[in-house]
Design brief:
mainly alpha, globular
Amino acid sequence: MLEAVNFAQLLFPDFSLIAIGWLLCRYTALDRRVWDQVESLVYYFLFPVLLFHSIVRSPLDFGATSSLLTAGVGIGVCGIALSYALPHVPGLRTHIDRRDHAASAQIAFRFNSFICLALAERLAGAQGLLLIAVLIGVCVPMFNIAAVWPMARHAESGFARQLVRNPLIVATLAGLLANVLGFTVPAWATPTLTRIGAASLALGLLAAGAGMQFATLGRGKVLAISVLSIRHLVLPLVAWGLCRALRLDAMQGSVLMAFSAVPTASSAYVLAARMGYNGPYVAGLVTLSTLLGMASLPFALALPR
């Protein structure tokens, strides 16, 4: 039986860390000079270790979860296509800054892996963790590549070169390859990697708060509403349709619906800032997405299946 979840309680730690980062940057000696270094540490070391460990630690059983995997990839492809198309939609394109779009398109389809893992365990126990591990293992590399593409294309800096140099892409692809080859992390290294992962999540959210400027959201309202609507309304509806079309069982359906409605990845801010884009704008979107998750998660899980 699926366990009830208090979504506000689940999302409060993420939101509170963003708020603390904002307060620290503006009202203490920990100003932008400090947070620029924190962003570099998260981007080049902490997040890559987290992604690699998250993918490697659970064996991926593609055969047993083929329908769930098909649905997860389908949700991702839909989110990517819709977010990429925004500047070309009549009525929207004149209100969307192309550079801000390149940085924030990722908000529409990326997801917070830690919240996914916590939700899957609450909803379906150990089996839920195995199911979400398959989705994370396959979708994280695909989504990270899709996040880098608009920024590399807009900057005309060479997509292949950006992929090779991007530590998040390298870490996720290495993790997927290691998982497929059967590599396991030694037991003695697991506590260290787990603590690095926890540090990356905390510092990434604090950095997002430190970089946030609410005024930037006001200048890009149409884009903000568009990407957040895709993330928190359209994708749960797409997931609901795929659940019914692929006849997923109750456990797989619940994991998929949670996957479709969680807040966006906190690393979206760090990626945009490190690639030279409008980090404060993306940080604001991450914050709003975290808040919207309190509405989209119960909405998605309540849809009849």
